[in-house]
Write a structure and sequence with these properties.
The protein is of the alpha/beta class. The protein has eight helices and eleven strands. It folds into two domains: 117 residues, Rossmann fold (3-Layer(aba) Sandwich); 70 residues, Winged helix-like DNA-binding domain superfamily/Winged helix DNA-binding domain (Arc Repressor Mutant, subunit A). The longest helix has 15 residues.
């Protein structure tokens, strides 16, 4: 399912839109305002943002500006505003589309798919604290400096990102990276690569804050 962030402070709209979009193979996560959206964007990876202009805290224009500057994600404005100023302001900030409420759900789905098709390759940057991972370019940088990850280190990082918050056993990790290094991947190799990844990602590899050891179970990215 395609992950979408819906920034909307009307609970009924969130519930109804989430239920409908799920039937269209979209996985929707809702945020009621600017702060909630910022927190989710730091923790999760999304393909697109549906954004209301009028929010309980802040406004959609500010959120759009931050999303475009920090993550490069495609944005569709959802708003009751239909005046020319709002439309122009939204597009000036880099919005990819604009649909006025009330809208027809199937029209929205069509707009979403169209934007995703036109912006394929956009929205590829994931932030992990002061680390930025660009999945289109296959790079990871910390404070603007390339981490120079090997293919196996990068694949291991992606596995953690794609299962953020979940505990991953060593067996699961080995199976996930097997096709990168083939016969050279074994339990000892995994230990070595987790150490190398921590050395590059962590401020203090001896006291990791990103790749955590869950004793007796495996590892997780919080």
């Amino acid at each position: 399912m395609t992950p979408i962030l819906l920034v909307e402070d009307d609970r009924s709209i969130c519930e109804n839109l989430t239920a409908f979009l799920k039937t269209e193979d979209f996985d929707v996560t809702c945020a009621p305002g600017q702060q909630g959206a910022a927190e989710l964007l730091q923790r999760r990876t999304f393909a697109l943002v549906l954004l209301d202009i009028s929010l309980a805290d802040g406004n959609g224009f500010s959120v759009c500006r931050e999303i475009k500057a920090e993550y490069g994600l495609p944005v569709i404005f959802l708003t009751a505003s239909s005046d020319e100023y709002s439309t122009v302001a939204g597009f000036d900030l880099g919005a990819d589309d604009y649909i006025a409420k009330p809208f027809r759900p199937r029209e929205l789905v069509s707009r979403i798919r169209n934007v995703l098709r036109l912006t394929s390759g956009a929205g590829a940057v994931t932030k992990l604290g002061d680390i930025c991972i660009d999945t289109m370019r296959g790079t990871a940088a910390k404070n603007g400096c390339d981490l120079n990850l090997s293919a196996l280190e990068y694949r291991l990082l992606l596995v953690f990102l794609n299962h953020r918050g979940a505990v991953l056993s060593r067996t699961m990790l080995l199976e996930s990276i097997w096709d990168i290094a083939g016969e050279f991947v074994n339990d000892n190799t995994l230990t070595v690569y987790i150490k190398r990844l921590r050395d590059k990602l962590e401020d203090d590899p001896q006291d990791p804050k990103l790749i955590l050891t869950v004793r007796g179970l495996g590892y997780k990215l919080p």
